[in-house]
Every structure is written in C-alpha cells, then in structure tokens.
Predict the structure.
Amino acid sequence: MAEALVMGLLRQGVVQAESMCVSGPRRERVEELQQKYGVVPFTDNAQAARMADVVVLTIKPQRLEKVLSGIRGSIQPTSLVLSIVAGVPIEKISNTLGHNIVVRSMPNTPARIGEGITVWTAAPQVTQEQVEMARQILSSLGGEIYVEEENYLDMATALSGTGPAYVFLFMEAMVDAGVHLGFPRRIAERLVAQTVRGSVDYYEKRDDLVHLARLRNEVTSPGGTSAAALYYLEKAGFRTAISRAIWAAYERSLELGKGGKTHPPEESAARDNSS
C-alpha cells in the first residue's frame, strides 16, 4: 500500500518525487523504490520523520508499537500524521507518539491502480488546511469518504478494506464452476471478470439509483435459470455466510486495535454454538 500511495501521489502530481521520503528497515526495498520513482530513501524512520510535513504510517498493526516508539519525539509539532493501519484508533497513535495531529484512514487494494475507496476521519486538532491536504493525498488512491465518527473506520475495514478478498473468492468460485462446466480457464476468467465489471458499471450508471434487489429481479425471470441459481444460493446460506464473514473481519479489526490476538475460526464458532 505504501508503494500504491507513492504511485498515486506522483500520478496525480500532488508532490514531486524528490520531496517524498520513503523509510523502512530493508535497505534494498527503499533503494528499489528510489530507482523506480526517484523518491528519497531512508532506513532510519526517526530521521525521515524529522524532515516531513506529513508522516504516513503504512505498516502492519503488529509492528505499530515498535515503529511509533521509534519516531516519538522526532515528528515536528505541526506535522500531520496519516495512518492507514488497520484497526488502530487515533487515541492509541496519539498517546504512543505524544502527538495529536492525526488522521486515520482505511483504503483498499484497488488503490494500487487508483480505483480504491478510502474511509477516513481526523482528530479535532487537525486543521482545515491539513484536512484538505489529507483529502488530496487519499484521493490519489481513488474515491474517499470522510466520516465524523471514528467507529466507522473499523466497519470500513471489514466491508471495503477486506472487501476485495470476498470479491476475488467469489470470482474464483465462478471461474472454477465455469471450468467444471467445460470452459477453458482463460475463457472462464474473461467471462467472469467482464461480468463483474459490467454489473458494477451498470449499477453505477443507472440514473434512478435503484436498490440492488431491483437490479437482481430484472435478470431473474420466473422459473428461469437465474431463479434456479438464486434459490440454491439462498438455500445454501449465501447471505448469512457473507454477513458472518464481514462481522468476523470487524471483530478482528477491533482486536488488532487493542493489540490482542484472536481465536482460530473453529474456536470462535464453537463459542458461538455453546452460547
């Protein structure tokens, strides 16, 4: 996601490459980014933070404590800290850093091609100018939605942040079914990809902004093939499986924010069944 952000900022002309610092523990990685994009490489996070007007945290939640402790005291008092770390609340970032000018955001994988969607919010200490700066940065990844309440970020992590994984699994299942029917895999993949792409475009380009259920009904003739397929999906608990998967992702997001570990899915299911 860090590289996606670099690409997006350069693509949109938000910042020049020579004004962008990238920092990480692996010298070969930051030097690779320097060669590809012309950015300034660092392996010392504190040194990079001291030079920045905006510090973007693009790390795994499990490494956050160590990284924040390493740059505490190095961030300029008026600099903006922008986090894309899943599940970690603004309060925890502010307390660990000793710095309260923080924006928290949740982008998703399509950001890598400028087609992502990011939900974000800002601490009260963030100025209006910095809010607009954050909006410009996040817009380089695709669409963005600002929310007033931070609890929406954990919901977004489960719905849109993790969402591409659900879509890819669904597409994979459709492709495998196509191969089972007798299609060559390359043809099944093309059929599925264009079906998903076209369905989304059709939904978004409708002038009447209809409910998704109405669009589903438009392609479901009584006693037809769609009706037969949808009957089986409903009988198999398709909606319930999706809903429970998203709820599990939401709970995991909350656990990551607390720095805790989760139980394996089998254990969680066992607890649900016993309660």
The CA atoms of residues 263 and 269 lie 10 Å apart. Strands lie at 21-23, 40-42, 54-57, 80-83, 102-106, 116-122, 142-146.
